[in-house]
């Protein structure tokens, strides 16, 4: 009886440690959101099957995908900031806006 239990434990241990997970499954996906979803599902499968040797490559791919998304977000933020600076310069150069600022300043000086 003990031999059977030891055999079953050994069998389950080896079957879970050599889990069949295709790491390259998500490489061909071009949409970043879908790629992250696929990699996350793959990671969850690897964790549930206790495939520790498969986790590192999956985590590395997730990290690289997040870096790519972060770089595009920073580019978009820089574009928004430069557009905002240009708009502020245009407003400051506008004569009507300068007159309004001057009148506002005079009214604040009179109030104080």
Q: What percent of residues adopt helix (DSSP H or I)?
A: over 70%
The SSE order reads HHHH
pLDDT under 50 segments (min length 5)? Answer: none
Rg, Cα atoms, Å: 30 Å
Main sheet: strands, sense, barrel: none
N-C termini distance: 95 Å
Structural class: mainly alpha
Number of extended strands: 0
Q: Give me the number of helical elements.
A: 4
Overall shape: rod-shaped
Overall tally of domains: 1
Give the mean pLDDT.
79
Percent strand equals: under 5%
Kindly list the characteristics that best describe this protein:
mainly alpha, rod-shaped
Structural commentary:
It is built from four helices and no strands. The protein is 82% helix and 0% strand. It starts with a helix and ends with a helix. α2 packs antiparallel against α3. The protein has one domain (21-111). It is rod-shaped and about 100 Å long.
How are the SSEs ordered, and which strands pair?
Layout: H1 2-17, H2 32-48, H3 52-93, H4 95-111
Helix pairs in contact: 2-3
Task: Give a short summary of the structure.
With 112 residues, the chain is mainly α. 82% of the residues lie in helices and 0% in strands.
